[in-house]
Structures are given as structure tokens and as C-alpha cells.
Amino acid sequence: MAGHGADEHPHGADRLCEAGDRVYSRAVRRGRLPRREAERVPCLLELALLHPDPDDMDWLVPTSPQEVMTRLLRGMYDEVRASQRRVGSAVAAFEWYAGLGRQVPAAVGSSEGPAIRVLDGLARIQAAMDEATQACTTEVLTVQPGGIRREAELSEGLHRAMALRGRGVRMRDLYTHVARHGHGLLSYLELMGDAVEARTLDEVIERLILFDRTVAFIPANAERTMALELRHPALVEYLGTVFERLWRLAIPLTAPLPDTGIEGISHREQSIAALLAEGHQDAVIAERLGISVRTCRAHIARLSETLGAASRTQLGVRIAQAGLDKPRGPAVTLSGRESRTAR
């Protein structure tokens, strides 16, 4: 196996080389294969996709595809959670710096305005958004939390989206999985056509709109009656990086959600189970997943029935026993191909 190290196979289990794909597939079909057949693909041993047969060290047996996928998806989920925590810390820092900024006069002769500006009131927010839309020439990235989008929200932003589409601006949107059930959103996306792509996650960060990687808007209070307009290059670049990482981990809107592998438990119920295992209350879980508290409790009741739990305490035990205490994360596309999505 000398001379075939990691340098010739610079990949992970989520993007196997062609030779590794063939050998691993053969091992799964046969149940095991001779060690010599894996000599040209040391990556399979390095990634723990193959391991020696304890009954005969001249043979290798494959790690089950289900175990490999669980390992991959849990790693991606951890990455998403880490990004969300970093964004939360950054938003708190933005608010603190914005408070300081109100005490400091704007720089004389600055043509681009302050790096952080507080927009107080919906009228000021809309005016700033319209101005950014008119100046945008390349792309718009948005994160839209909160579940199913209301028709009024969609209509409010339609004129900006249509103006962007008319100028050939590329748009990409991130939603929660719940947004897939909104008929108004589907109609809106059909109207926008090829101008927009959309993907979904179990949870997304707070609302974010980023124009041309030069100006970003984020909420400044829970009611969203105040916003921060960010033009500092480092802050805007940071938010763009967060978006790209979440985008890579999200599921295209036209693709189905991954199956939980447990009969009677849906993808949403699996997400709820994981949040319950973390100790969150019903209202917090509902907010994070973009559903109502009533809907959340209905799912919890079905979880209890499916897992045979008579109390919340027993439900926690059953969740851990079923392996639902850690979400499996977003779907992985090994081929690197995905169908076109609409916003």
C-alpha cells in the first residue's frame, strides 16, 4: 500500500474517489473482499469504510452504509450548530457596537455612510431595502426563518424581487423545512422561475438579507421593527461565509427530506425529539422549527405514542434508546448533482 497515501485521495467519506466508490460498492454487495483488492484505495481504510475481518485478516469487511451516513450527517449537524452559535454571538456584538456608534459622529467626507446604521421603524427599513435593491447588480442572499411565509410578507417583497430579476440578479434563499408546506410560497417561487434558488434546513439563523456582498440587513429587536444596516467589509464577509456554509448543508426545495429510518417517526418529529433531549421547552422548540406550539405538542404526543412513553420523563429515555437524541443532519448528495430549485 506504499505510495498510495492520503495525498492521492484528498477527500472524505462524503465524496469518494472513483476507485474508492467501486471498491466500497463491491464490498457492500459481497459482504467482504480480499485485502489485495483494496491496495489501490487506502482511503477506504483511512476513512473507516473498510476494516479487517477479525476471522481472517486477509479479508476486509465494509462498514454499513447506514452507519457511514449517520456519521456524516451528525458531523454536518454539528457544523451547522456551530455556525448558528457564532452568528448569534456576532448579532449580539453588532447591537453593542451599534449602541456605541450612536455616540460617535459619522466620519467627515465618508461617501458610503457608517459601517453600522440602526434603522428605527418599518418605513426606514423599507426605504433602505429599496435603496439597496436599486443598487444591487449581482446577487442577493436571504435567510427567512419562521416557518410558512404569509401572503402579505411575500407580496411586500415582490416588487423588489421582480426588479432584481429584471436586471439578471441571482437570488438564493434559505428557509426552514416547514416553509415547504406554504402554498403562497410555492406560487411565488413559480412566478420567479430560474431567477431564484431555494433550500431548507431544520433550523436557520435569524433573518438576513445580503446584497452584492457589500450591504447586509439583520433584525435589531425581536419585533423586527428595528434593523441593522451593515456595510463594514469584515462583517458582511463573515455573514456571507455563514450563509454559504448553511447553503451547502441545506436540502434543495425540490428534493425530499431524508427518511428517519424509524417507522412511524417523521423528519420533523426526529428534530423535535433531538430538541427535547437537549431540555428545551415546547415554545422554544416551536419557535426554532417555525411551527406553532399546538402543532409542536401534537408531534410530541405522536412521538410518545410511537415510542410507547407514558410521561415526558419516559419519553426522554425512549428518545435516547431510539437514537433520536442527536439529529442526523441534512441530506448528503454524494454525486454532487442536484435538480434546479425555485425560490
Q: What does it look like?
A:
α5 (151-166) runs parallel beside α6 and α8 crosses α10 (293-307). Helix content is 45%, strand content 15%. It has helices at residues 18-30, 43-46, 65-101, 122-135, 151-166, 183-192, 233-249, 267-277, 282-289, 293-307, 312-321; strands at 33-34, 50-53, 56-62, 116-120, 139-144, 170-176, 196-201, 208-211, 215-219, 226-230, 251-252. Strands 4-10-9-8-5-6-7-11 form an eight-stranded mixed β-sheet, with helices on both faces. It has a three-stranded antiparallel β-sheet with strand order 1-3-2. Mean pLDDT is 79; it is low at 1-7, 107-111 and 329-343. It has eleven helices and eleven strands. The chain has 343 residues and is an alpha+beta fold. The radius of gyration is 24 Å and the shape is globular. This is DNA-binding CsgD family transcriptional regulator. It comes from Streptomyces albogriseolus. Keywords: DNA-binding.
How would the blueprint of this fold be written?
Blueprint: H1 18-30, E1 33-34, H2 43-46, E2 50-53, E3 56-62, H3 65-101, E4 116-120, H4 122-135, E5 139-144, H5 151-166, E6 170-176, H6 183-192, E7 196-201, E8 208-211, E9 215-219, E10 226-230, H7 233-249, E11 251-252, H8 267-277, H9 282-289, H10 293-307, H11 312-321
Parallel strand pairs: 5-6, 6-7
Antiparallel strand pairs: 1-3, 2-3, 4-10, 5-8, 7-11, 8-9, 9-10
